[in-house]
Design a protein that fits this description.
Order of helices and strands: HHHHHHHHHHH
Number of helices: 11
Helix content: over 70%
Structural class: mainly alpha
Strand content: under 5%
Low-confidence stretches: none
Distance between the termini: 15 Å
Largest sheet: none
Radius of gyration: 19 Å
Number of domains: 1
Number of strands: 0
């Protein structure tokens, strides 16, 4: 995948993620003035119209959203969105190809670390290793978990197995860069992981924002294979 193609796919997926996020605010009268412009900019980005300037406008607009909510109110997904927007702006405005590749490679590395660091934090915590933390997430989560899902906490071995599967996946995810086939499998598993979280916990924003970063991994793996 060429740098240009990877950047274009990143823009399209990011635009979709921003559209979904913005649509959630249209029912709140006081926030429409803030998010309707983001919808318009996202549609222009998806269409590929003046992408460098649209990315810059979206990044500036994101600063107003940060000010309005006193920070990234949705945590990790907002931070990932800002990371992708910043990387895209650098890619578009860097004067040299080396600078553009470094900016896009930085996005790929941060995406890898988002999994690996999360896995390391979990596996160094005794409560995650025993499965207790995963059970507590099911039982006491503030997210909209259904009663049928919460009942799964009564199966401690299954929950513990699932917790270990998540930890190992996150820790080993960087190894997916070793080959194209391994990366494709890793990205499919990653997308499935975020999809399950969206269905179970309502973390739908994470699904689209992380998918928007996946083209950078496909590009980086190919770039590493070709030799830096």
């Amino acid at each position: 995948m060429s740098l240009e193609a990877a950047v274009r796919w990143t823009e399209i997926l990011l635009a979709f993620a921003l559209l979904q996020q913005s649509a959630e605010h249209l029912c709140i009268a006081g926030e429409r003035r803030l998010f309707v412009p983001r919808i318009a900019l996202s549609l222009l980005l998806m269409a590929g119209f003046a992408s460098p300037w649209i990315c810059l406008a979206l990044l500036i607009h994101a600063l107003f959203i940060l000010e309005r909510f006193e920070g990234p109110y949705n945590g990790g997904s907002d931070c990932m969105g800002l990371l992708i927007l910043t990387s895209l702006c650098l890619v578009h405005f860097m004067p040299s190809m080396l600078g553009r590749e470094a900016a896009f490679g930085y996005l790929a590395v941060q995406t890898l670390l988002s999994y690996c660091v999360a896995g390391w934090v979990k596996i160094t915590n005794p409560e995650w290793r025993t499965g207790r933390a995963a059970r507590d997430v099911l039982l006491f989560s503030a997210y909209p978990v259904s009663e049928s899902i919460r009942a799964g906490a009564e199966w401690p071995r299954t929950v513990s197995l699932a917790a270990w599967a998540v930890m190992l996946f996150e820790l080993l995810f960087p190894l997916a860069l070793l080959s194209r086939q391994a990366l494709v499998v890793g990205l499919i598993l990653g997308a499935l992981f975020h999809f399950v979280n969206a269905c179970v916990f309502g973390l739908n924003r994470f699904f689209w924002f992380w998918l928007a970063a996946y083209p950078s991994l496909l590009w980086l793996q190919q770039r590493l294979g070709a030799g830096l």
